[in-house]
Amino acid sequence: MDNTKKINNGWFKKGHTSPNKGKKLSLTTRHKISLQAKERFKDITKHPMFGRGAEFSGENNPNWKGGLPTCKDCGRTLSNRNSIRCKYCAPKELANRESMKILFKKRAIYTKNPIYNGGVSRTKKYIKLHHQRRKAIENGGGFLSVKTIQEIYEENIKKYGTLTCIYCIKPITFGQDTLEHKTPLSRGGTNEKKNLAIACAICNSKKGNKTYEEYAQQEKNGQAQPV
């Protein structure tokens, strides 16, 4: 027999309803019922639960839930189940949490910005300065006409049969072709036809600020050959 049945044996029966349920009792009747209950258990030793406290205390109680939790930081026993830290550790955690909120709020200003690009500024002012710098470099390389660009593309197709990168010697997919300066404008290159070629976007990006000869020497596969 489990603890619940021991407690309820002779004291409470499932489904039992009080005869006074739903009735509006007068003050006199309620007083009489109270006196009868007091008289019945005037001697505490006659109460059904008398002397059984130790039997149903702690882990023996049917409602036992493992005791009170301990503090997450220092391990002290807490006074209730609604807390995870004691009164000594909670203020420290709160101060730390507030400092982290400030940090994340500052970070969110940049990371949640629609024009955020990995820490590189992409504001209108930066883009304008970047275009001005690029334009100054291009002007230093001389005038570049549409006719010259068209001739470079036609010569590439005549030589390889299709639009091909001069570095990896692979056909270039649509939209991945770039106009390549064999000697970069930033290193004194010009927009003359002999300094121009067609390269794929990947190779052009990998080449960076190197000259054609420097990049061709760097390639381990040796596919890139000067044209």
Describe the overall structure:
By secondary structure, this protein is mainly alpha-helical. Among the domains are: 70-122; 143-218, DNA Binding (I), subunit A, CATH 1.10.30. It is 39% helix and 4% strand. The chain has helices at 3-8, 27-40, 90-111, 124-140, 146-160, 201-207, 212-218; strands at 177-181, 196-200. It has a two-stranded antiparallel ribbon with strand order 1-2. It is rod-shaped. The model is unreliable at 1-9 and 223-227 (pLDDT under 50).
Question: What labels would you give this structure?
Answer:
about 230 residues, mainly alpha, DNA Binding (I), subunit A, 7 helices, 2 strands, disordered C terminus
Outline the low-pLDDT stretches.
1-9, 223-227
Q: The CATH topology of one domain, please?
A: DNA Binding (I), subunit A
Overall geometry comes to rod-shaped
Second CATH tier, the architecture of one domain: Orthogonal Bundle
Question: What is the oligomer described by this structure?
Answer: single chain
CATH top level label of one domain: Mainly Alpha
